[in-house]
Amino acid sequence: MTTHPPRPMRARSLAEKQQRRADILCAAEDLWTTTPYADLSMNQVASAAQLAKGTLYLYFDTKEELFLALVDSHLAVWIARAAALLEERRPRTPAQLADVLLEAGQDSHSVRRLLVLLGTVLERRVRPELLQVFYQNLNGHLERLLALMPLEREVSVRVLRHLYALAIGWQHLSEQPQPQTRSQPRPGGAQTGPALGQNCVLSGGHDADEEFGLAVRAVIDRVTRVAAPA
Predict the structure, then answer these.
(1) DSSP for 183-208?
(2) Can you tell me the distance from the alpha carbon of 194 to that of 219, in angstroms, rounded to the nearest whole number?
C-alpha cells in the first residue's frame, strides 16, 4: 500500500502564513526549472508544496498571480542587495557603479527569466488592479535605489532602464539553442537557412555572463558621458 506524507496543517499565525506562502513560491519556481510555464499547473504546485489545491487558492487565485509574486520577491531581493551595496561602497564613478550593480545581480538568471515572463505573459493575464499594486510597490523600491545612485535622478533612471532592457535581451539570447554546424531539414527535405534560433551565431554562448557585464559597463559609461556637461 502506498503511503503519502501527511499534508501540513492549516497555517494559523501570520508567521505560519508567510512561511506557507514562501513554500508555495519555492515549489513553483523549482517546478519551473524543469517544466515549461505553459505546461505548469496549479495542481502540480499544490502537490509539490504538499498542499490541498483548495489551500493553494487561499494564497493565489491564478498561476499568473503566483508568478507575479515570484517576480516581486526576486526584484525586491535584488533591489535590497543593490541598495545595501550602494550604501556600503559609495561608488563615485560609472565604473564603480557598474561594479555594484553587477555584483548585486550575480546569479540573476532567475530574475532575467521572470522579467521575460512578466513582459510576455503576466502583464496580459494578471488582473489590472493587482498589476497596478505590483508596479506601485516596485516604484517605491526603485525610488530608494535611485536616491542612493551617484548620478542625477534622470540619468539614474536611464541607467536602470538600459539595465532592464539588457537583462531581457540577454535572456532571450541565452534561451536560444546552441548553434549547429548544419542547418536543420524542413518537412519535405528543404533546408533552413540561418535564423535567430538553432543555427544563429548570435544565440547561446559560454561566456554570456561575462559579455553581459561588458555590455552593462559600456552602457553605463555611455549614458553618463552623454549626460555630463560639455
Answers:
(1) PPBPTTSPBP---SSTT-TTS--TTH
(2) 29
How far apart CA 38 and CA 32 sit, in angstroms, is 10
Query: Which residues contact residue 119 at a Cβ distance below 8 angstroms, ignoring those fewer than 6 apart?
Result: 168
Cα torsion for 168, 172, 173, 179, to the nearest 10°? Answer: 180
Asked if residue 211 lies in contact with residue 171, where contact means CB atoms within 8 angstroms, the answer is: no
Residue 145: all three cell numbers together: 535605489
User: In the numeric block, which cell numbers belong to residue 163?
Assistant: 539595465
In the chain, % of residues over pLDDT 70: 80
- Say whether 51 sits in a helix, a strand or coil: coil
Q: Which residues pair with 191 in a beta bridge?
A: 185
pLDDT tens figures, 72-114: 999 999 999 999 999 999 999 999 999 999 999 887 788 999 9
